[in-house]
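User: Hi! I'm working on a homework problem where we have to compare a predicted structure to a textbook description. Could you give me the structure for the chain below?
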Amino acid sequence: MSKKNPVVFIHYSWDSEQHKDWILSLANRLVADGVDVIFDRFDLRLGTNTTYFMEKVTTADKILVIMTTSYKLKADDRSGGAGYEFQIIASEINSNLKSTKILPLLKEGNKNVSIPKILQSFTYLDIINDIDFEKNYITLLSEIYNEPIIKKPPLGKKPKFISSKGETITPSIEEIVDVGFTREKIHKLLGKPQQSTYLEDLFWSHGIIVYYNRHEDRSDGVILTRLESGIEYPNQFKDIRLGDSFAKANTKLGNPLNWGLPYKDISFAHYDLKNKFLTLSIWRDKPENPPTDFKVGNIQGIGYCQKYSVLACQPLVAITIEEIKNGLSPTYLEPLSEKSIALDFSSSFFHEPYEMSQMQYGKYGGYYIYVHFVISKKTIAIWLYDLSWSEMVIRSMRDLEELKK
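Assistant: Happy to help. Predicted structure tokens:
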């Protein structure tokens, strides 16, 4: 922290006497905490040049912008003293877009009605609720002194991806799935996971999630995902990488077998690669377009797994619906399960666009996927089971409304 007392200019509009008194109280508190405050009620004496005072905003280390509905009107219209000051502030913003000199504080209203247009993209501190004032005041004071409450840790060293013999120590995702490493072996290769559950290890340090067969404790599926930190797994799937356009992947893989729409902005493209499943999670740049329009989408996740993996549930359901649509007998329907399939496969709803739920663990074993057909609003529950510990099958397909009865 600098030994110099920070200089802060308080910029606001004269909305009411109560509002002016609240800001005076804030100014007094800041001065008591070592902040040199430039404030009209401190500095504007009889005979003071008001224009000269307002232009002092350029000399301050930080500018507190107290935002209300009345303030936004004056700032956007550049009217009155607040409008003139804001014109100077706007020039400072435009001259240095990376500056953290401006500290916007929302005192009344909301973002749409109280924050000037030029500040709409700035982060701000919500100080509307007086109950949280002490907490917010400490946050504000830490920013004024450039002493953030949460500090970025020192930059560490690059992970050692290469062994002393020059061999890559991070296995390819094909190796992880095809070989089927034990959990102990995975930990030796990738280190300690940042989070573990019954069937998965999450390695945020590598950008990968590893799934295990629940009967043999061997890896049978992976998901690669790009983290906000930018970390990516070094060995991605063949020539397909996170961030690639779907159009680029499509030229290498061909059209997907089917798709799912788990979220508004995300689609899943499913592929059957003989004895494995590949699923691409695609961020749809234009979610208003049909979910099958991948032309402007980018790959944000890659899933690769054995056909008996828990990760196989969604691709297997997609394949089954595709086969039903084409009048084929479902490949993954368990033999002798006809009594559990209380559906007419010739029903028209199978030809509708549909949305697929995430996998859920079954109460009596196995896994559930719910498929919602968009036009008819019909939802079916599909129960999948890892038969003989090595093959995933569909054991039941039922109308959800009928199940509820």
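For your comparison, note the following. The chain has three domains: 7-144, 173-307, 312-404. The first helix runs from residue 17 to 32. Good luck with the assignment!
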